[in-house]
Amino acid sequence: MESTAHRPAWKTLLAFAIIYLVWGSTFLAIRIGVREVPPLLLAAMRFFIAGLVLYLWVLAQGERSPTRRQWFSTFLLALMIFVFDYGLVFWAEQRVPSGITAVLLAIIPVFMTLSEIFLLRTQRLTARLALALLVGLGGVAVLMSRSLNLGGEPIDRAGAAALIVAAMSWSVGAVLSRKLFLPQSKVMSSAVQMLAGGFMLFLAAAARREFRGFHPGNVSRGAWLSLLYLIVAGSIVAYTAYVWLLHHESPTKVGTYAYVNPVIAVVIGYFFGGEALGPRTVLGTVFVLISVVVITTAPVSKPQPALAAKDKHICATSIPPQPTNRS
To answer: What is the DSSP string of 139-183?
Structure first.
C-alpha cells in the first residue's frame, strides 16, 4: 500500500464514490436491459466488449498475454463466475427487482464461510458465526416467505433460486481462484476472465436460441444506453477505481462496498426503477447486511491442530470470505 502523504483526498473519495454508486446502480441497468435484450446475450455483449477493451489496453501497457495453462485456468474460472453466476443474475433480473437481486447476492460470504467450515475445514464454526449465518439465511427467508404478513409480494421463487445458485457459484469460483494458475496482474486476469466469460456466454445464448427473433433495430435507446453503462462505467471505470483503491487503501476499507452496494441498489431501484420498498424488503435487507458485516469482520477461528492435520491435503491455509465484486 502506498503512502497517503502526497495523494489528494479527493481522489480517494472519488474512487470510493465510483465503486459504491456505480456498482450499486448496475443492478438497475441490468434490469432495464433484459426487458428488451435476451439475458445471456446482454451479459455476453457486456463482458466480451469490456474484456476485449481491457485486454488490448493491458497489452499496450507491456503486459504479457497469458500462457496456455493460464488460459485454461481462466476459462475454467470464467465458467463458474460469468456463465453460471452472471448468466443466472441476468436471467433472474427478468423476474426479481434489481434491489432485491443485490441483497440476495450479498449472501455470498455466507456460502464462502459454509464452504470453509464444512468442505475445506479451514475455519471452525463459532457461536458468533453460527448466529450470523442463521440471521443471513433468515433474511433470505423473509424475502421469499409467502406466510409472513409483511406486506408486498414475496419475490419470484424461480428467480430467487437462480440468484442463490449464482451466489453459490461465485463462492466456488472464489475458492477455486486460489488454486488455479492465473496471470499475476489483477487487471490482465480480470480482462481475460471477462473476455473468456463473454465468449462462453455467447455460446450459451446461442444454445438457448436467444439470437432467434432478436433484432437490434427493435431495441430502444434506453436499453442500449444501459448496456453502454454496464460496459464503460460498471466493468471498466469502476473496476479501474477498485484496483486503484486496492493499491492505496486497506482491503477492509475497500471491502465495505459489499455492504453499501445492496443499499444503493435498493434505493436506486425504488426512486428510479419504481420498485417496492416495504417492510419485507427493509427487514430482509437488514438481516442480510447484519449477517454479512458480522461474517466478514469476524476473526478467523482455525480448526484444532489434529483436525487441520487430518485435512491438510484439502487446503493448507484459511481463505477469508470475500465480498462480492460485481464489476
So the answer is: HHHHHH-SSS--SSPPPPHHHHHHHHHHHHHHHHHHHHHTTS---
Burial class (CB in 10 A: 0-12, 13-18, 19+), 224: middle
Question: For the chain, which residues make up each domain, given as ranges?
Answer: 9-310
On whether the CB atoms of residues 320 and 174 are closer than 8 A, the answer is no
Q: Rounded to an integer, what distance in angstroms lies between the CA atom of residue 144 and that of residue 160?
A: 8
C-alpha span between 43 and 61 (Å, rounded): 27
Distance set, CA 41 to CA 53, 84, 154, 211, 327 (Å): 18, 14, 28, 8, 17
Q: Which three cell numbers stand for residue 227?
A: 448496456
Closest CA to 117 of 101, 100, 129: 129
Amino acid at the residue 212? R
Going by C-alpha positions, the residue among 94, 110, 237, 226 that lies closest to residue 162 is 94
pLDDT band at 6 (very low <50, low <70, confident <90, very high): low
Q: What are the pLDDT digits (tens) for 73-125? A: 999 999 999 999 999 999 999 999 999 999 999 988 888 888 778 777 778 88
Dist. CA 37–CA 91, nearest whole Å: 11
Q: Is 300 exposed, middle or buried (0-12, 13-18, 19+ CB in 10 A)?
A: middle
Report the alpha-carbon distance of residue 211 to residue 268 in Å, rounded. Answer: 31
- Rounded Cα distance, 133 and 156, in Å: 23
CA dihedral 53, 191, 207, 223 (to 10 degrees): -50
Q: Rounded distance, CA 240 to CA 184, Å?
A: 16
